[in-house]
Amino acid sequence: MEIKEKVLQVKDYLTKSNLPASDYVINPYIGCSHACKYCYACFMKRFTGHTEEWGSFIDVKLCDKPINLKKIQNKTVFLSSVTDCYNCFEEKYQVTKKVLEQLVDVKCSIGISTKSKLILRDIDLLKKCNDLKVSISINSLDENFKNDMDNASSINDRLCTLKELHNQGIYTVLFMSPIFPYITDFKGIIERTNTYVDEYWFENLNLRGNYKQKILDYIKVKYPNLYSQYEKIYIKGEKMYWIDLSIQIENYCKQNNIKRINYFYHEELVNEKLQNKRV
User: Fold this and answer.
1) How far apart are the C-alpha atoms of 170 and 67, rounded to whole Å?
2) How far apart are CA 216 and CA 222, in angstroms?
3) SS3 of the chain
4) What is the pLDDT of residues 203-229, one digit of tens each?
5) How many CA atoms lie within 13 A of 54 on its CB side?
6) How many Cβ atoms sit within 10 Å of the Cβ of residue 18?
7) Alpha-carbon span 87 to 92, nearest angstrom
8) C-beta neighbour count of 275 within 10 angstroms
């Protein structure tokens, strides 16, 4: 797919965050070349005026103003919430690298989430950060399923990236997201990776907007035996699958002393954060 690129000048990289575990987010790009079929961030098109298909455009955000380091002192900063800061255009523009160069000496907690092996380019910078967690998204060990879902690095490359980060002393997180009902094998993924992953995060597949029908159509064609179950969850709104899976994950992780965070109830966590701010 040809990707339309555009360079934008922005006033600031820092944005206040409503995410449960971060105070600020930095999104060096608008759009993403990974073109994940389930990507919630496609809602950004409503605010940016893009009419192109999600995954077919990238806006590169350049900012002459230095990051306000006092503002993020003792705070948490997350890269990135609505793009992958290591999408393939980062190799050309190096916006994320320039951001990291400003953050390395700051006393703050930094979180980076990506699906790209390109993050290893910046290993020397990552090792200088005071408090850093790097999460790599993996929801299947099946390369064919992954290729159906996104254009990011292969599963094997992501596993090797996690291992190398761990070997270099970086705190590693495997972000099992989004979990596809009856497809994602959480135990299999943990058993494959637990020697080089420090923590696991879990997030369920939420279907909304125009990609809901695309995913349901995909399941109907590729996994017809599961379609009735997806109807129960995503059309009839039944929640028992996620409740049962939450219990399974919790019990398994407890039994195996696995550090974890369950983000299944993301909206509730966001609302709780907002409530705490008002108190």
Assistant:
1) 24
2) 10
3) CCCEEEEEECCCCEEECCCCCCCEEECCEEECCCCCCCCHHHHHHHHHCCCCCCCCEEEEEECCCCCCCCCCCCCEEEECCCCCCCCCCHHHHCHHHHHHHHHCCCCCEEEEEECCHHHHHHHHHHHHCCEEEEEEECCCCCHHHHHHHCCCCCHHHHHHHHHHHHHCCCEEEEEEEEECCCCCCHHHHHHHHCCCCCEEEEEECCCCCCHHHHHHHHHHHHCHHHHHHHHHHHCCCCCHHHHHHHHHHHHHHHHCCCCEEECCCHHHHHHHHHHHHHC
4) 999 998 888 999 999 999 999 999 999
5) 21
6) 13
7) 10
8) 9
Residues in the chain, total:
279
Nearest Cα to 242, choosing from 255, 254, 229, 257?
229
Residue 254: how many CB atoms within 10 A of its CB? 10
Torsion angle of alpha carbons 229, 234, 237, 239, nearest 10°? Answer: 60
pTM: 0.91
- Pull the structure tokens for residue 226: 């599961």
Cβ distance 203 to 176 under 8 Å? Answer: yes
Which residues in 118-130 are b (16+ Cβ under 10 Å) and which e? bbebbeebbeebe
Query: Cα separations (Å) of 179 from 37, 110, 137?
Result: 13, 24, 10
123-151 per-position pLDDT tens digit: 999 999 989 999 999 999 999 999 999 99
